[in-house]
What we know:
The longest helix is centred in the middle third of the chain and has 40 residues. The protein contains 9 helices and no strands. By secondary structure, it is mainly α. α1 packs antiparallel against α2. It has one domain. It is elongated, with a radius of gyration of 24 Å. Pfam families: Zn_Ribbon_1 (PF13240). InterPro entries: Zinc_ribbon_dom. Keywords: Membrane, Transmembrane, Transmembrane helix. This is Zinc ribbon domain-containing protein.
Amino acid sequence: MINIFDIFSYIRIGIDGLIVVLVIILLIFVAVRIKNVELGPDCKKGFTKCFIAFILFILFSTFLDFAYSLTYRILTDLAESGAIDYYEITFILGIFSIATAGLGFLNNWIAYVILFSSMEIFLFNKKSKGKFGILAILLQIGSFILLIIEIVISAILGDYLGIQITNLVVNVLINFNFIIIGIVILILLGNTAKENQLLRNYTKMMSAGVILLLIIVPIFNQLVYVLNFISNLLAWNGYFFDNIIIRNGISWGIGFLSSLCFIIGIIVLSLGAIKTMTVPLTFSREKAAKGSPRQILNHQLNSCPSCGTSLLPGAEFCTNCGKHL
């Protein structure tokens, strides 16, 4: 008989598999779009390469999640049918969990460093000499150090409550790192848009993607860790069977919302990146003050020669199709 936990498990497999498919489609779309459109003069090739690499690494992360969910379900079914005992399934899942967690952490570390590097190229055209990338790397190294500290403290304490508190604090702090970097990117995008009002319309989608991916998703992850801590604390005091169904239901709900925000964030961020790649944007007051000789040449154009959209006097590009004028 299928219970509620089996239903959660099957739904989780379906969600993880769907995310993998969506990321593959997104990767193909972004790659084809970049190849077939004329990039704006301010869009550096490093930005497009880094952004595609970021999606590739995200694809690997989503595949690891799907592989673990599927393996867990298969081994559980085998154990229930008697083909494999629970000691074997615990050992295999333990090894597989450590392997996927380690690969996933390393993969996400590289993926987000690449994302931050692409954002640095996008915002500064490498004029910042890697300062933004260095900040991202330092925060990621800090996350790795926190994990090591968690392992050491847990080994020293050997106490259930101490281990749970350490796990909660460390994982909340690690997710807080992503929130810090997300806020930094939003501030930089906002300041850049102030320098050139045309940028505001082309950075909204990127800002929305950053909010979902680097702020909302980490907050959901923190909620899951807090919920697990409370649940484990209750179990430690003898309330295990009273709260396990509620805990799993709430955890599944938060996990679903986190996965939903994650994939929507990736899609919105990618669409925002593509939108900014095809238009000539200005990223500094110095460049904005110089203007462009094309403003004089295009002063008399009333509509886009490509799609027919009405143009403002002195427009450098079409706001609809992005064609350079």
